[in-house]
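Hi there,

I know you've been waiting on this one. I reran it after we fixed the sequence typo, so this is the corrected version. Both the input and the resulting structure follow.
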Amino acid sequence: MIEFKPLNSLSIHLDRLVQGRLWMKVIIGLVLGAGLGALLNPSAGLLSAEVSLRFADWLDLPGQIFMRLVQMIMIPLIFTSIITGIVSNTSENLKTFGFRLLLYFIFTTAIAIIIGLVVTLIFKPGQYIYKLGGFPSNDESQLIPNEQTNLIENIPNAISNLIPNNPLEAIITGEMLGVVIFTIIIGVAITQLNEGTARPIIRFSEAIQKICMIIVSWAMMLVPYAVFGLIAALLSRTGIEIFIGLGYYMAVVILGLMVLMVFYLILVSAVTKKNPFTFLKAIKEPQLLAFSTASSAAVMPLSMKTADEKLGISSNISDFIIPVGATINMDGTALFQCATTLFMAQAYGIELTILNLLLITFTVVAASIGTPAIPGGGVIILASVLQSAGIPVDGLIVVIGIDRILGMFRTSVNVTGDLAACLIFNKFFGNKTV
C-alpha cells in the first residue's frame, strides 16, 4: 500500500498557535469583551438601544468570519482525514473495531446525557429565570424552523437516510454524517485498488489536507478577536438580571462537563491502567486549542499528533477514530442539549414526567449519533428535542447567544473523549506500546 503522509505531520501551524499562548489571548479577549459589552448595554445609559444593536452587529463580524472559514474547510478536511485512516488500516482491522467503536460512542453519549439530566435536576438553573417571569414568547421564535419532526417516530427513515442517495447534495447542504458514511465507503473501495491506480487519489487527498491546514491557521489568527467581539455583542444585547440567570445555567452545564471529564479519566485508568493525570498532561495542547477555537474539526491534526507522539497510539487507530469522533462522538454537545432542554422546561415552569425524561434521553442519543450536522444543526436538533417534550422554543434565542462560550468548554471535552477513545482502542487493536 502507498505510504500516506499522516495529517499530524501537517500540524506545524497549530503548534505555533499553541506556543504563542492562543488560549491566554482568548481569556484576555473574554474579559475585555465582557467589560465593553457591559458599557454598550443600554441599561448602562451610555448608548441607546438602536446604537447598541448596531455596534453589536459589527462586533459579531470577526466571529462570523472565523466560523465561516472553519465551516468552509470542514468537509474536505474530514473527507481526506477519514480516507487517510482507512487507507492506513487493513480491511480486517476496520471490520474488527469499527462496529465496536460505534457501540463505544453510543455508550459514552448515553453516560453524558445521564450526567446532564442529574446535574440539571439537582441544581435547577431554570428556576431563577422563571422567578424573573420566564422567557417571553415573541416572533423571534420563527427563526427556529417550525417543520420539526419527532425523531423517535421516524427512526426507520433516519436509518435509511444515513446513506446519502446524492453525495454532492450531502456535501453542499453540510450533512456531515452522510458525508462521513460516503467517505468511509469510498475509503474502503480505495483499499481494493492496485497501487498504481490509488496513488493519484492519495496524493490529491494529501494536497487537500495541506491546503485545509493553511486556511485553518489563517482562521485561528482571528480567534481572540472573535471571542472578544462575540462576548461584547452578547452582553450588549442581554439584560443584566437575565445574564446572571444564564450565568448560573452556564455554571451547571460546565459542572456537568467536568463530571464527564472525570468519567473519561476513570475509564482511561480502569481500561488502560494509565495514570489519568499523565493522560491529562499529555493532551493539554489539543484541549487548549479546542477551547480557543470551539472547533474539534480544526484541532484534528494536533489531536492526531498528540495521540501519536505523546500517548504512543498507533497512527492507524488515531487517523480513523479522531476524524470520525470529531463528527459523531459529541458527548459534550449531547450533555449540553440535555441540560438545556431541562433548563428551558424549568424556565417556563413546565414539570417533566419520567416518560418525558426518557423521551429526551432517547431523542438526544439519536440526535447526537444519527442526525446530519448542517450549519445551525445544533439549534435545529435542540428545537426538535424541545418540541418532542412539549417545551416552547422561544427562549432558545437567548441561549443561542451564549452558545459560543459553552461551545469552548464542550469542544475541549469532545476532544478529550476522542483521545480517550484512541487510548482505549489502542490497547486492544494498536501496534504500539502505550
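Quick highlight: The chain has one domain: 7-429.

Best,
R. S.
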